[in-house]
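Chapter review: from sequence to fold.
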Amino acid sequence: MLSFYIRARIPQYLHSSSSGSALLFSKPGLYRLPSRNMSPSAPVRMIQTAACLVIGDEVLNGKIVDTNSPFFAKYCFSLGLDLKRVEVIPDDEADIIEAVRRMSEKYDFVVTSGGIGPTHDDVTYPSIAKAFNVPLEIHDETRQRMRKLWKSKRNEATFDWDTPSNRLTAKLRMATLPTGAGCRAYFPSDELWVPIAIVNDNVHILPGIPLLFQQMLTGLEKELVPRIEASSRNIFRLMISTPQPESQMADYLTLLQEKVQERGVKVGSYPRWGKPRNTVTLVGRDREYIEGLVEEVSKQLEGVRVSVEGEDDSESDEAVEGV
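The token string follows.
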């Protein structure tokens, strides 16, 4: 399992703001992005849409609960990216090839999670290489960083990196990456040997271990921010807490959505089953316009604006009908 091969203690990075923000600067088209991991003259596509592909039999059979896609959803919201799709698929070459080709073609920024360890069922690297017809090769910098940062388990003897062995072959599977046109390895932290392998310019291969997934995505932000259109900045979420059940407010919310749709605002209704109040949200990029709707929406819903769901609940409140 990949977690055995990480030397540094991994902190947890979370985005909890209800109104994501980022320092954005760009113009439509291609942006030439300087980076320590790529040529300064390499053209980079601007990004607006995102997708997440979770790969793992253990997720589909219920052995583990996926926490990476919820983190990624918050991550995208904080950067002003539109997360359009999340899929969970098995550790199967054909499934990976089909999904990653489709997502790469349809979305600007694609992240995969899982399947890059040293065992037979870790098939993400070779499957994605095959999907885009690029070779797999041992990545020299990854191998060097692995050797430098490797931390043996307490019950593991000192490892011999210079003598061929089955264990060495297994370890080097994790440094064998897709290479060639449209491929590069990005190292988001000097404390990790694991890179983000980028394929077809927009597919970013990450480990499934949640703390690694989170740290590596957070380290990628400085590369992503200049590639996000300036018009996408400051995506904003407004929440109204209301005692009304959904059936009571359904007609008004339909009319409200029709009214705000041309301004790029989405209205959402979320029942809090067994709780005294439900939540209505307005999400968009025109904060001033959304703020101007607070008085009307609060009055119609007999509600109040909140920053956190449940902050206006009290023990004396009776539960409302969720729907």
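Two observations follow directly from the output. The two ends are 44 Å apart (CA to CA). The domain at 235-306 is CATH 3.30.70 (Alpha-Beta Plaits).
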